[in-house]
Design goal:
Shape: globular
Structural class: alpha/beta
Number of helices: 4
Strand content: 25-35%
Distance between the termini: 45 Å
Strand order of the largest sheet: 1-2-3-4-5
Number of strands: 5
Length: 121
């Protein structure tokens, strides 16, 4: 049986919003693939980028740095939100205080509402 990929990514577009779904582990070994997927998602010049990390099992500091770098790169031209609900993802973001900088949401629905300017339900 082949080894499981340490990271998988897929991008979809919905009303000009790019949704990057990431699963697996984000660490030094997978950060080039993660950053590459972010860059690919931004090539279409979306009005917003949502990184959905609901299926991420491990988020290393390199992943946190990539999220901050993406936030700095797109803010001003596009919305940016992160979906992180599990302890593997939301906990490191909150412990480092990045939840004060990043738009952090528990679900993709909430993140879409935030970047599209819809009032929360």
């Amino acid at each position: 049986m082949p080894a499981k990929d340490p990271i998988t990514t897929s991008v979809s577009y919905d009303d000009g919003v790019a949704v990057l779904v990431v699963s697996g582990e984000i660490d030094l070994a997978t950060i080039p693939a993660f950053e590459g997927a972010i860059a690919d998602a931004l090539t279409q010049r979306p009005t917003a980028l949502i990184v959905d990390m609901s299926a991420v099992d491990f988020l290393a500091s390199a992943g946190l740095q990539a999220l901050v770098a993406t936030h700095e790169k797109v803010s001003g031209t596009a919305g940016f939100a992160v979906v992180a609900d599990g302890p593997a993802t939301s906990r490191p973001i909150e412990l480092t205080g990045l939840n004060q900088i990043l738009s952090l949401h528990a679900s993709l629905h909430d993140a879409k509402a935030a970047v599209m300017g819809d009032p929360p339900r």
